[in-house]
Amino acid sequence: MGINETTSEIKSIKPRVDFEMGGKGKGQLKELKVLKTFNPNIKVLVSVGGLSEGSVKFSEMARSSAKRTAFVNSLDIKSVFDPEGWLLTVHITAKRSVINLGYDLRSISEIVDYINLSALEYHGPWDRTTGIMAPLRSNNENNVEYMVNYTISKRASPSKILLGLPTYGFSYIVEDEIKRGQYLGLNSDQTFKSKWTNKRGTKLVNKYKLGGIMLWSLDMDDFLGLCHNQKYPLLSAVTEYLEQQDNSYIPKKKVVVETYGK
């Protein structure tokens, strides 16, 4: 979802995809509701904003009391529903420079139910050298464990943090096809996430008593089971590990999965 740049009311970015029925990717919001018939306890979270929406419209909305009211009222939350049944979450980038400029984590933590900490894309094709996209640890601040520690140090409640792990990888094109370096037999290289690396990341949940795991994104996992005859191997690895742990410090084991609407 996005917001109307004039009124600041929440709107569908792609109504045809969200509401129209007819298959081929249409009617996705109604399709999500169908999941309730398979698992009545499932929680469907509607995201507002994101990379494609940018930040300008949200800054304009935040500056105006009238526009803030219009934004909240456009949620149209019916009073007949139990308020305890709703979740308010926020998705933040796990980079120190972004957190310092954009987030009052102590205040946010007091308001929201969960903070989705997007600890990924520390390296990518935009870099001049290759690197692991979401390193668990490294010799600088661009790694998962450092940012978990830093987020907690900014007074975010650990039990509200859902650690975001990727289910995808990046491709790199070598700069010189003749001087490729060692072990590169082709003209490209890839970094990717495996079941093993996601399990290692999941261990941080218990180490820091976090609220759970967020995966970005569900549709980038192997949902057809083409690689090892197992559907959703990355999601399965995370949930299997969490089920084996003592997470008694939180009400329920949490795994939040997100999909990337195209």
Automatic annotation (TrEMBL):
<protein>
    <recommendedName>
        <fullName>GH18 domain-containing protein</fullName>
    </recommendedName>
</protein>
<dbReference type="Pfam" id="PF00704">
    <property type="entry name" value="Glyco_hydro_18"/>
</dbReference>
<dbReference type="InterPro" id="IPR001223">
    <property type="entry name" value="Glyco_hydro18_cat"/>
</dbReference>
<dbReference type="GO" id="GO:0004568">
    <property type="term" value="F:chitinase activity"/>
</dbReference>
<dbReference type="InterPro" id="IPR011583">
    <property type="entry name" value="Chitinase_II/V-like_cat"/>
</dbReference>
<dbReference type="InterPro" id="IPR017853">
    <property type="entry name" value="GH"/>
</dbReference>
<dbReference type="GO" id="GO:0006032">
    <property type="term" value="P:chitin catabolic process"/>
</dbReference>
<feature type="domain" description="GH18">
    <location>
        <begin position="1"/>
        <end position="245"/>
    </location>
</feature>
<dbReference type="GO" id="GO:0005576">
    <property type="term" value="C:extracellular region"/>
</dbReference>
<dbReference type="GO" id="GO:0008061">
    <property type="term" value="F:chitin binding"/>
</dbReference>
<dbReference type="InterPro" id="IPR050314">
    <property type="entry name" value="Glycosyl_Hydrlase_18"/>
</dbReference>
<dbReference type="GO" id="GO:0005975">
    <property type="term" value="P:carbohydrate metabolic process"/>
</dbReference>
